[in-house]
Amino acid sequence: MTSLVLGTDIVLEGEPCVNLAERNLMSPHGQFHRYEILLIIRNWMPYEYRKDMGLASDWDSRGIEQFRIMGGVLDGNILEACETVGSMREMAHQIRERPAFDIRELLLS
């Protein structure tokens, strides 16, 4: 069985959010761009929202890695949000603002 995720082009800060990711993906224009990808719950259904954040190389040159933040739990077949769009975006902002570090340091500790 395949799960269907609907798309949306509008999200509200108070909506339940189960996942926020910032990923570098190929844009329709043939260049890699950074995208904010939110998975929200609306009317008991998952919806995906994508926001183009500009060229991926701009983010990479500032040392900001791609990341994912979980904001919900899966209980059987029910996906339950523990966070909102606003709280997840605040967490993402904090991640982007922290000093860059060499990810290889995690392997050495």
Summary, kept brief:
The chain is built from 3 helices and 8 strands. With 109 residues, it is α+β, with helices and mostly antiparallel strands.
Structure description:
This protein has 109 residues and is an alpha+beta fold. It has one domain (6-97). It is 21% helix and 45% strand. The protein has three helices and eight strands. The chain has helices at residues 56-61, 85-97, 105-108, and strands at residues 6-7, 16-26, 32-42, 45-55, 67-70, 72-75, 78-81, 83-84. The strands form two sheets. Strands 1, 2, 3, 4, 5 and 8 form a six-stranded mixed beta sheet that branches. A two-stranded antiparallel sheet has the order 6-7. A hairpin with a 5-residue loop joins strand 2 and strand 3. It is globular. The N and C termini lie far apart (41 Å).
Question: What labels describe this entry?
Answer:
109 residues; alpha+beta; six-stranded mixed β-sheet
β-sheet strand percentage = 35-45%
**Radius of gyration over alpha carbons?**
15 Å
What share of residues is helical?
10-25%
Q: Counting H and I runs of at least 4 residues, what is the number of helices?
A: 3
- Average of per-residue pLDDT values: 90
List how many beta strands DSSP finds: 8
- Low-pLDDT residue spans: none
Oligomer: single chain
Query: Between the first and last Cα atoms, what is the distance in angstroms?
Result: 41 Å
Number of individual domains: 1
Report the biggest beta sheet as strand number plus sense, adding barrel if it closes. Answer: 6 strands, mixed
Shape: globular
Give the class from helix and strand content and strand pairing: alpha+beta
Order of helices and strands: EEEEHEEEEHH
